[in-house]
Amino acid sequence: MALNVEINPAKSTDPTAPDLLVNGRIADLKVQNTPFFTASSYSMDPQFTVTFNRKDYERYDAMYPEIEVYFWINWTQLSWKNYSVKELNSVFKANFSALKSKIVAGAVEHTYQHRQNDRVGNAKSSFLFDVRTFDLIADLKT
Fold it and tell me: Does residue 14 form part of some domain?
């Protein structure tokens, strides 16, 4: 599958605009380098768990319900405390409508305890997803 990818022209005037146009469709890129090591506490596998911020969910739902979300997973940290994962460097795609369906159906939501009084704009919670339920776009292993 060939992808025609360009930076969203709206980014030049609005830093909060979605990142990309992919084959003419609005899209956003989520880059994740650190696994959610404690995903097993939610009965999920840290190797394949990604986070999706609630604030992004609410923004997309209000402004970009047709957006595609690309997750570039490149685990650069492979262990933490007693947890470990294997290398993973791949790009996955999920349509926002599929993410929304999972959220409405009760997707796991993790609340960041240390961000509850955050005033910088960090997300206070994120939904957890298994990337194996998304479309694999590219395996970037060298």
Answer: no
Which neighbouring-strand residues pair with 99?
none
Closest CA to 32 of 53, 50, 54, 57: 50
- The dihedrals phi and psi of 122, each to the nearest 5 degrees, come to -65, 150
In-domain check, residue 11: no
Q: Which residue has the tokens 């940290």?
A: 77
| Tens-digit pLDDT profile for residues 8-63 | 999 999 999 999 999 999 999 999 999 999 999 999 999 999 999 999 999 999 99
State the residue range of the domain holding 31.
Answer: 21-139
Neighbouring residues of 45: CB distance < 8 A, sequence distance ≥ 6: 39, 130
Q: Which of 71, 58, 70, 59 minimizes the C-alpha distance to 23?
A: 70
pTM value is 0.90
Whole-angstrom Cα distance, residue 17 to residue 43? 34
Number of domains into which the chain is organized = 1
